From TrEMBL:
Lineage of the organism: Bacteria, Bacillati, Bacillota, Clostridia, Peptostreptococcales
Coiled-coil boundaries: none
Chain ranges passing through the membrane: 6-27, 39-62, 68-91, 112-134, 140-157, 169-199, 219-248
Membrane topology recorded in Swiss-Prot or TrEMBL: Multi-pass membrane protein
Annotated compartments: Cell membrane
Full protein name: Glycosyltransferase
Species, as recorded: Alkaliphilus flagellatus
InterPro entries xrefs: Glycosyl_transferase_4
Length: 272
């Protein structure tokens, strides 16, 4: 089952990409890559039909298992919610207000930016999903923060071609190595297949997956983390996420990567 869903997810991604790319180019939903070439923006929308097809397959294989169906629905609700908010940000994004602090300050002044909307809705869906897998208030807080911060983490990485997907794949594979339930591993595996299928487009700057892509990949990692690990492990994950976000608010992640020869090598790998 795992292999079948992985392969179908990969093939579906490869088939859908050219159609979505042409659709976005025709609608002039484009931006300029680092070479100044016009490329489609919001290509992460390819993830939506892929994840639905994966869900149909997953449901077929698990049969009438209510617990597994609920798990599938949780992933779908989280992914689809962030896909919608990500698409709004890609199409209407306020690029004059950057950073989490900037969006919050704008909101306090009575101006709602698309980034502020993303933060509000992302926070609410994180609390909803986090509470579904919690037994007490502390666990709700920890789970909600992990989901929200993972969602934003991949977005923070999506500043150079291929960086966000490299980050997603690294964390996803690490999760699998640490250990996941079979059902969670199958769902994450299907999304890894999507990321692999889309990766050549991203690393060569042929298209931008946008917030719709980074948000959906990020929330996937967050959900996997909160449903899979003990509180001790989640405390460690949360501490690392908070540290990364504090650093990202004060310093440029791109500059940090450039100054580290190993990180810079990995970041540039496959780009040129």
């Amino acid at each position: 089952m795992e292999i079948i869903i992985f392969i179908i997810s990969l093939l579906t991604t490869l088939v859908i990409i050219p159609f979505v790319k042409e659709m976005l180019l025709t609608a002039n939903i484009t931006g300029s890559n680092y070479k100044g070439h016009k490329i489609p923006v919001g290509m992460g929308i390819t993830f939506v039909p892929v994840v639905i097809i994966n869900g149909i397959l997953f449901n077929y294989f698990i049969g009438n298992n209510a617990n597994m169906q609920q798990l599938l629905l949780v992933f779908l609700i989280g992914i689809m919610t962030m896909a919608v908010i990500g698409l709004i940000d890609d199409l209407m994004g306020n690029r004059d207000t950057l950073g989490f602090k900037g969006h919050i300050k704008s909101l306090l002044k009575g101006k709602l930016t698309t980034g502020g909307l993303k933060a509000i809705v992302g926070g609410l869906i994180s609390i909803l999903i986090g509470s579904l897998f919690s037994f007490h208030i502390i666990e709700i807080v920890v789970n909600s923060l992990i989901i929200a911060l993972f969602t934003n983490l991949i977005n923070l990485l999506d500043l150079r071609p291929g960086r966000a997907i490299k980050g997603f794949l690294t964390i996803a594979i690490l999760f699998i190595i640490i250990g996941l339930s079979k059902e969670t591993r199958i769902i994450l595996g299907s999304i890894i297949a999507y990321a692999i299928g889309y990766f050549p487009q991203d690393i060569k700057a042929k298209s931008m997956m946008g917030d719709i892509g980074s948000n959906t990949l990020g929330i996937t990692l967050g959900i996997v983390a909160v449903i899979s690990y003990t509180m001790t492990v989640k405390y460690i994950i949360l501490a690392l996420l908070v540290l990364i976000h504090i650093i990202a608010e004060k310093y440029s992640i791109t500059e940090i990567i450039k100054k580290n020869s190993i990180l810079n090598f990995l970041d540039e790998l496959g780009r040129y």
